[in-house]
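Below is one such protein, fold included:
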Amino acid sequence: MAPVPSTSVFPLRSALDEAVDAVTATALRPGPIGTVGLELEGHLVDLAGPGRRVTWPRIRAVLDGLGPLPGSSRVTLEPGGQVELSGPPLTGVAAAVAALRADRRVLADALADDGLGLALLGTDPLRPPTRVHPGARYAAMEEHFTAVGCRAAGLAMMTSTASLQVNLDAGPPEGWPARVALAHQLGPVLIAVSACSPLLSGRSTGWRSSRQRIWGDLDQARCGPLLGGADPAGEWAAYALSAPVMLVRDDDGGAVPVRSRAAFADWLTGEADLGRRPTRADLDYHLTTLFPPVRPRGFLEIRYLDAAPEPWWPALAAVTATLLDDPVAADRAAEASAPVAGAWTRAARDGLADPALRRAAAGCLAAAVDAVPAVLRPEVTALAELVADGRSPGGAVLTAADRGGPYAALLSATEQSEAVR
């Protein structure tokens, strides 16, 4: 395939400086706090045969017939056939949850008409990782992960994981260091609280969040956390330019996988030869192939929460937004979570069985219950009670598996049209 013409390339002499400036300038957007966007992924399930993945033509036939949704969510598909609803940015988490719930009802009805359901779990507990999406991006991603030595984790991440993503305003510039640092500091606590992926590919993994374990097994230059320092925009630029290039797009709409660890900065300066010079469009696309647990995109993408069924995903969305957007709750959460800052692996492996994480979670949930919108307080209170018992949403998955195996675990979290009304 022919390479994209080298137009709008970075000037070689100042390429690195220009790229740093470009990424820094777009990392965080100044403004007030209060807008919330939610993205929820789920595993598509054939109710007549839960052990098999839904074929791509069948998925497309169902979703292509889906009209505009009442809450204006976009519907997209992940490599394993996972369905993602991406809600618009709205004022406050209550509005964002209400819109996404409305869209899920419509989607559930459409899926049910074709004998399908949607399982809201952090990992697929039953089916082996298998890519069904034919897109060139995902084929190239799979080849890149294989070449750099993390094929199994890469394929599992693409095809067997699902998350709840909470998107929040960056806020005023003077508050960026503390805000970004808190978003990272809360990571281990909220991983433990949201943990809903104790099974993968038909077996128990021994981890509370197998989804987070998978992310930890991937290339940390692409998927690891930032440091949460005094200059978060500059730190993101350094992270992005040091990260390896995953693929190079061509003019046929395809993608050529990069089968080595070539940093974008090295492509810019000519130290790495990837067939042509990089353009600004290449830099913008490269940023979409980076998956840290908190990703700056003008706003903050909080990416470390497991997908979980009702009522847990609305509660998790409300807790996350409240602990970062309400100043009193944020101060209390910062104090409660400080002792477990950086405990990403412990949180994924042990969850709330870890005494320090359980204490931190209890403190954070107490802060959230006092500050969440009244309409979501019942869900958040229920989550706080679950945490007080040392449990997370994944406990029900293990109980179902104990009674009926991975099939039962998958079906226990599969929401059909009647179940989401």
User: Anything to note?
Assistant: The domain at 35-234+292-420 is CATH 3.30.590.20 (Creatine Kinase; Chain A, domain 2).
